[in-house]
Amino acid sequence: MAFNGEIISLDIFWLKDKSLADLDNQPEPDVLAEEIIENIEAGLNSFKEVLRLKIGGRTKITSRDHK
After folding, report:
1. Torsion angle (degrees, nearest 10) of CA 11, 17, 21, 23
2. What pTM did the predictor assign?
3. How many Cβ atoms are within 10 Å of 51's Cβ, its own excluded?
4. Contact assessment for residue 55 and residue 65, using Cβ atoms and an 8 Å cutoff
5. How far is the C-alpha of 56 from the C-alpha of 67, rounded, in Å?
6. What is the pLDDT of residue 24?
7. Are 32 and 39 in contact (CB under 8 A)?
8. C-alpha gyration radius of the chain
9. Which one of 7, 8, 27, 43 is CB 3.0 to 4.6 Å from 31, fit for a cystine?
């Protein structure tokens, strides 16, 4: 791929997290699931905050606010 005369590689092999290759040092599935849930909830709360700011600072967000 070229951009402004420069060749750009889209290979992302160098982004590998080497710690993921060591299966003996991975967290237990329940710990991993808890971390995933925490991250999803944090993301959802961020979206709720953006929506709250968009609808004028009301603290309660209802389903009709999403339309």
Report:
1. -150
2. 0.50
3. 13
4. yes
5. 15
6. 76
7. no
8. 21
9. 27
Could you say which DSSP state residue 65 is in? Answer: G
Residue with tokens 């160098």: 14
Tokens of 43: 């993301």
Per-residue tokens: 39 = 């991250």
Predicted confidence (pLDDT) at residue 33 exceeds the cutoff of 70: yes
- Whether residue 1 contacts residue 7, with contact meaning beta carbons closer than 8 Å, is answered with yes
Residues in the chain: 67
Transcribe 10-55 into DSSP letters.
Answer: ---GGG--GGGG-GGGPPPHHHHHHHHHHHHHHHHHHHHHHHHHHT
Q: Which two tokens stand for residue 28?
A: 């237990």
d(CA 58, CA 61): 7
